[in-house]
Automatic annotation (TrEMBL):
InterPro entries: HAD-like_hydrolase, HAD-like_sf, HAD-SF_hydro_IA, HAD_sf. The keyword Cytoplasm does not apply. Signal peptide: none annotated. It comes from Aggregatibacter segnis ATCC 33393. This is HAD family hydrolase. One of its GO terms (biological process) is riboflavin biosynthetic process. The lineage of its organism: Bacteria, Pseudomonadati, Pseudomonadota, Gammaproteobacteria, Pasteurellales. GO terms for molecular function: hydrolase activity. Its cofactor is Mg(2+). The gene is yigB. Keywords: Hydrolase, Magnesium.
Length: 237
């Protein structure tokens, strides 16, 4: 564990979800694969490729950059644009997109959460208020997390990290000063930079064993760097 800043007393701990409390990489690969397989069952969409899907997602994202902060809405609108290009009717577009998104979200939540993550949160919950703060679309309760006093998703509940919106909302919700919020995450930009810019404290979970200065997105130093989530249990302020 490395300290880059003086750790101040905190009352609330917020957690990024994907790749912080569990490994998300293979989950998304599987969910994307199942999503496209589901689409290919429909007439006129059988030949849809991953490249075509990415094209429409990137196109819709460029047309509306803020939409990208709400990953569910972004995916939905991208799918609807793809289906319209495939000359599906408005009725079909509505029905297919609703079913496909439900199917995708099912696979999106097929996450193997380490038992250790549950145990750590359970211990921390005895001393602190806990928050899930994510730029993704996971619903914590669907994957077994019942520890959070508040859940905020970027784009849905406010501007996505690293914007200060979710951090400030959390501080207001618990009636604390921003520095009394300790945010834990794996991403040096969305998590660390976002938290520090909002006046909060930040734990960078570095699972790579690489030095922080080897990361091009290291704009601001975290308060603390740790390589294992269990090290949180030794932080007492």
């Amino acid at each position: 564990m490395k300290f880059y800043r003086t750790l101040q007393p905190f009352q609330v701990i917020s957690f990024d979800l994907d790749d912080t409390l569990y490994d998300n990489s293979q989950v998304m690969i599987k969910a994307e694969s199942e999503f496209l397989a589901f689409l290919r069952q429909y007439d006129g969409v059988q030949g849809v490729t991953y490249a075509e899907w990415v094209f429409w997602k990137e196109t819709i994202g460029r047309e509306n950059p803020l939409l990208q902060e709400n990953v569910t809405a972004w995916r939905t609108q991208s799918l609807q644009a793809l289906l319209a290009k495939r000359q599906k009717s408005a009725v079909d577009i509505s029905a297919i997109s609703e079913k496909a998104m439900s199917y995708f979200l099912h696979w999106r939540h097929q996450i193997d959460v380490p038992t250790k993550s549950f145990e750590i949160l359970q211990q921390l919950k005895q001393h602190y208020k806990l928050v899930a703060m994510t730029n993704g679309n996971v619903e914590p309760a669907r994957i077994g997390f019942h520890h959070f006093d508040l859940t905020l998703r970027g784009g849905e509940h406010g501007r996505a990290k690293p914007h200060e919106d979710l951090f400030r909302q959390t501080a207001r919700h618990f009636n604390i000063s921003p520095h009394q919020l300790l945010h834990v995450g794996d991403n040096l930009q969305t998590d660390v930079q976002g938290a520090i810019q909002a006046g909060c404290q930040a734990v960078w979970l570095n699972l790579t064993q690489k030095h922080i200065y080897q990361f091009s997105d290291a704009r601001l130093l975290p308060t603390v760097e740790m390589s294992d989530l269990s090290a949180l249990l030794s932080l007492h302020c």
